[in-house]
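Treating backbone geometry as a discrete language has practical consequences that deserve illustration. The amino acid sequence and the backbone structure tokens for this protein are reproduced below.
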Amino acid sequence: MARARTVFSLSLVAAIALVALVIGVVAGRAIGSSDSSGGGKGAGAVGGKKIDVIIKASDSSFWQVMLAGAKQAGGDFGLTVGAFAPTSETNIDEQVQLVENSISRGVKGIVIAPNSSSALNSVIGRARQAGIKVITVDSRITGPSDGFIGTDNVKAGAQGGQRMCQLLRAQQKTTGVIMIESSVAGIQSLVERDTGFKQGLATYCPGIKVSLQRFNNNDINTAASQVNDALTANPNLLGVFADNNTSGVGAARAIKDNGAVDRIPVVAFDSDPQENAALATGAIDALVVQNPYFFGYQGVLGAAMASVDRIPPRNIDPGAVVVDKKNMREPDVKRLLEPPTAKVG
């Protein structure tokens, strides 16, 4: 479990470092709660600043965890944090409109998990021209921003590929094919995870290849159907890599329904109650778990720092932890699997 503790402690160190910088800005910590409005008294230069947080979708616990971190930062440092989301991760136009709304409200900062690496460049550019500081999280954009907070998805994906290889070697399988069950085509963070997974798999199990990939548009039922079809059509299928929580839940359902829990390993990204339950029952063999609470908390602090002309770190990577049945109950890991959540509004 040394890997998990090391990654988690690095996240904490980064958090402490950035909090220390913000304390230097505000000259004293504001008293607040996890509410979206923390007030401004005693918060110095950043007190009362309005920061909007725009997540990818409102219906995912991953993004609800990010909102909880953002709102906590607002309470801790006297910031007014607004929380917004499109109806789904595929609704890019709605996310663009949410940024337009933030510009109209005259906020000082925007923290956004972009649903496209390029389609939001224009509106984010307009926000920055209006003097609004923009921190992107989880997925980068191809245009400029004032900072980025997110997992190195290639590295984290490679961790997933290495674990898949270990699971297959335990079954004495060294040749065959793997399926990637993905959420949405063209999303940068997902592309990087899939690339990293292939690299990790090729490094440790060169005889095992990724032969098919399906996209479920972030729908659990579609993911389950696609994995079910792959199991039926490919009797030599060895395992499934699911690159987000929706894909992971769908893959686990299909594996269980086909009675393949002991035969087909599933390595999935992220964590939510359904994925955690599947991990406990063995329908998922390992989760590559990020820290979205960190994304939200540090994103708000970075936007607040930039809004008063302090320089936040340009890039922060809190790392990822590979979780399985053996370590899922350890205190540091359990905190990642069962973080607080908050909703839009």
Q: What stands out?
A: Residues 2-150+291-318 form a domain with the Rossmann fold fold (CATH 3.40.50.2300). Confidence is low (pLDDT under 50) at residues 1-42. The chain has two domains: 2-150+291-318, 153-289. The longest strand covers residues 208-215.
